[in-house]
Amino acid sequence: MTEQITLTDSMAQELIDTYGSPLYVYDEAILRRRCRELKSLLPLPNYRPLYSVKANSNPVLLRIIREEGFFVDAMSPGEIFLEEQAGFTPSEIFMVTNNISDEEIRFAADRGILMSADSLSQLARFGMLYPGGEVAVRLNPGIGAGHSQKVVTGGSCKFGIEFEKIPEILRIAENYRLRIVGINQHVGSLFLESESFLTACRLLLSVAVGFPDLRIIDFGGGYGVPYQGEPRLDLAELSRKLTALVTDYLKTCPNPDMMFYTESGRYISAECCELLGTVQSKKDVAGVTYVGTDLGFNVLIRPVLYDSWHEVEVFRRKTAGQASGAPEAAADASKASLAAAGTEEAPGSGCSPEYETVQIAGNICESGDILAKDRRLPVTRHGDIIGVKNAGAYGYSMASNYNSRLRPAEVLLLENGEQKLIRRRDSLEDLMRGVLL
Length: 437
Ligand SMILES: Cc1ncc(COP(=O)(O)O)c(C=O)c1O
Hints:
- The protein has twelve helices and 18 strands.
- It has helices at about 10-20, 30-40, 60-65, 75-85, 100-110, 120-130, 165-175, 195-210, 235-250, 265-270, 300-305, 330-340; strands at about 25, 45-50, 70-75, 95, 115, 135-140, 160, 180-185, 215-220, 260-265, 275-285, 290-295, 310-315, 355-360, 370-380, 385-390, 410-415, 420-425.
- It starts with 8 loop residues before the first helix and ends in a 14-residue tail after the last strand.
- Bound molecules: pyridoxal-5'-phosphate (PLP).
- The site of pyridoxal-5'-phosphate has 18 residues, from β10 and α10.
């Protein structure tokens, strides 16, 4: 099962009242637990997990992930910059590129950051800029995996260099006296069953022997977390099988110091976060009930982008007349969330006026701006708080100012029980940043 933050009605209300709505809330303990699980995926001295910063790039979270012994990958100079702010050094950063400019190649290479070329032409560009240099290549093993065609990154897609083109890689490397020191792959995002991934790993290892200068083999990421009550990815089994593959490979590997990387984002940061927003209005249109919230796709775009499903729960806002210190409603909230997930019927559902089937809409001027469809939830009132689970990966990092809305604050619940604001909410002035009148 998924591991999520547990908030009570009064905690959710206090957080929203303190930091504003919407709000991303993170839990340090869960983040660290996920890191430790992946750190032990390959029990070998030469294994290093990388964290894929694209999933969530808040530097405070990056610092925690670094403390847990991770390196990072980067897709852009911006990610490298944020990684540096979090304390990562060049040797701890691996730039996994896609269609980057010469300027971006220089940004990484001049800092001593190893980059991986994603095409023959980018490998040649690197060779022209840094003849005699060290570089990695991203291979496409011809296999994909993932929750949506939009996140499958192996097989027929824009990423990587096919195995058949390895002779051309070697020819370009020879032309520019390049040393190919790394090979990497990433077959797709959010797999909960690891067979395709393991097959891709086997294929990658089978071609490694063709690269005489190799010192890094990066298997990529994509490890899924359950969003809808699915069984968890069996990490123990994955660990066993991957360790067996690698151990077998090492028996004939010419480089005994070969490093092995993985590159996961979602597995590390998804579950440690709940996004909170507020019910602002309700209406029925053509027999459909809309709960109108401030959770537009500018805040969390995954449902609109990929039809992603996030579990939703309702926290009751206490009205002025309600006694403070009333019994905590965590149990109520989780009951409501189970009902919302469709895994348990709400008491008396179907006839109880306490539950209703709704569309949770955002406040963006697009009819597709629906966060959750056909959810059976407790009847909400104005001011109630909607909690969206599993929001820590591809949540804030994909947030935008569309409709000139302000991106939310992010707050971290520390292991010692304190709260730490780790990003303030945007201000109106932020909307003018960079504008030249
Ligand atoms: C090259 C690469 N590495 C790593 C990742 C991280 O994937 P995930 O967050 O699913 O682990 C991605 C995601 O798209 C990717 O494209």
